[in-house]
Give the backbone structure.
Amino acid sequence: MGLLLGIAVGLVLGLTGAGGSILAVPLLMWGLDWTLVQAAPVALIAVAAASAFGTLAAWDVAYIRYRAAALMALASLLTAPLGLLAAAALPHAGLVVLFGVVLLGVSVQMAWQARRAPEETRVVRAAVAGDEGHARGPLCRLNPVTRRIVWTRPCAIALGACGAVTGFLSGLMGVGGGFVIVPTLRAISEVSIHSAVATSLMAIALISSATVASAWLLGHDLPWRVALPFALGALAGMLAGRRLAPRIAGPCLQAGFAALAGTVALALIAQGLHLV
């Protein structure tokens, strides 16, 4: 069952290129009758593997801003354990509703992207070349020659804060956090969408791995017999999804995922509120 669920997650991730991994937790909850706290660390193992693969295979390494990704990952080390502790302390129903609200926000964000910026949607979903328009931001400027980030204190603080928020959400709900990192990088810096997604993939791989390690150190039971097949299935599904993605229009894929994520979000909220 873990292998099949992993393939489903990887297929969505390979088709959309970003955001698909957030469905890992609901699938594990419903497929294996687990709680969110049980599903989150296992989902993160698959997220870490898929993000690492995406970093190596999907993007030119020149696009990755290594130091930015490393800084966000370091900041997450401080907050991921807090997220894990909060998840254990919160009532399960409330946590499920919160996850549903976050997932609903992701679905709205992706629907907006598909409608407003289809050229960026294609880049995000399948590493298809597109325009490299630069988002002007006042905090993290790029060197005009090297195209690398010019480090300043405000820039470092903003990136650290992004990593801290992502780490907390990773521990709390088992999400990778690309839906936080990519928009933040685009808002506070001049990096292209290519660079934002590539850097996000590296940061997610590091943050997810750090959160899994934190869960293990805090005594969480990690069912490797399920986690490893789930991660392998996610990688296999991602490869299949990447082959299919170029055959489908980017905005259609993004809009379809937004609809799927919205449906799952509403089901989670209904479940948490005991409406179903």
Summary: The CA atoms of residues 17 and 234 lie 13 Å apart. The beta strands are 141-142, 149-150.
